[in-house]
Amino acid sequence: xxxxxxxxxxxxxxxxxxxxxxxxxxxxxxxxxxxxxxxxxxxxxxxxxxxxxxxxxxxxxxxxxxxxxxxxxxxxxxxxxxxxxxxxxxxxxxxxxxxxxxxxxxxxxxxxxxxxxxxxxxxxxxxxxxxxxxxxxxxxxxxxxxxxxxxxxxxxxxxxxxxxxxxxxxxxxxxxxxxxxxxxxxxxxxxxxxxxxxxxxxxxxxxxxxxxxxxxxxxxxxxxxxxxxxxxxxxxxxxxxxxxxxxxxxxxxxxxxxxxxxxxxxxxxxxxxxxxxxxxxxxxxxxxxxxxxxxxxxxxxxxxxxxxxxxxxxxxxxxxxxxxxxxxxxxxxxxxxxxxxxxxxxxxxxxxxxxxxxxxxxxxxxxxxxxxxxxxxxxxxxxxxxxxxxxxxxxxxxx
Length: 399
Prior knowledge:
Strand order of the largest sheet: 1-19-20-21-18-14-17
Number of domains: 4
Distance between the termini: 30 Å
Shape: elongated
Number of strands: 26
Structural class: alpha/beta
Largest sheet: 7 strands, mixed
Radius of gyration: 31 Å
CATH architecture of the largest domain: 3-Layer(aba) Sandwich
């Protein structure tokens, strides 16, 4: 087992073992937010034929001067396909989305026409091709509709629906269980006794997992249970999860039982201890291809550990790019402490005129929750970084 390793080394170890999960096929309306398992292509042009963009009249002859009139030869009802051509001087009434007769040169909006007997009079000049949606304007047969590894947004569902694709191949959702360790921890919905604390990390991690595309299969608090019971809890969670995240008990104190628990279920420890602050007391193991990532019990440290260790695995299991976006940002305030170990600060990042700015949030102690209320970025300070000054350019990771 490796000890006290660099963050990138820890990430590389985890990601070398994290292959995308198998695919499953789901009905279209069950797939928002899911990740496409393979490329999907157009099997025909969309639209399949020229269509009207507006309600009005399809005409054959280009109107050179307004007003001009045309013989109305047909009124196309909704759903009717034209089986006749338009000849010069002729018009046909059409609706938005209607297939157009062959010979159509333009579609005249109804608002600039009037009908006298069977003649259509046009009050404005219309250019050739106006108000016509050409065949294949959206997609040509053979075009890529949705690429493998794409998270399905509403627009993609609309495109798939337009092609009648109701069965969609997606990567299975990673199943994640959360195990909160700690002698003095009780479930969040229980009134703590003196000396006890409600479990905030369990719901915090569950929310992160659900936001990042995972399915939470268990949320367990062990409290003061002995080591043998911890082993039973973990083995049960591993049966129903691809990834188990533990929080608390990851240090080396007398009451820290994470390492002991992992060794006694036969897990292979990958590393323990990462050279970052907060979140140094983090580790990882594999048990029968299932991941176990142990995070700090301090809330802010737990969140940092999740973003840097657990989230990349969760994304990789879905076939997504495991890494968050990293970019430079100007700092809007200051931070007075010098950094010895590589440090991650919780920040709020926003963009204006193409430039990013980040604010260091109050409540940066690893034991605090305050900064998590607004945090949407981590500020990456290298070892030996001096106090942060206002206006300084910093490297941030967008969450």
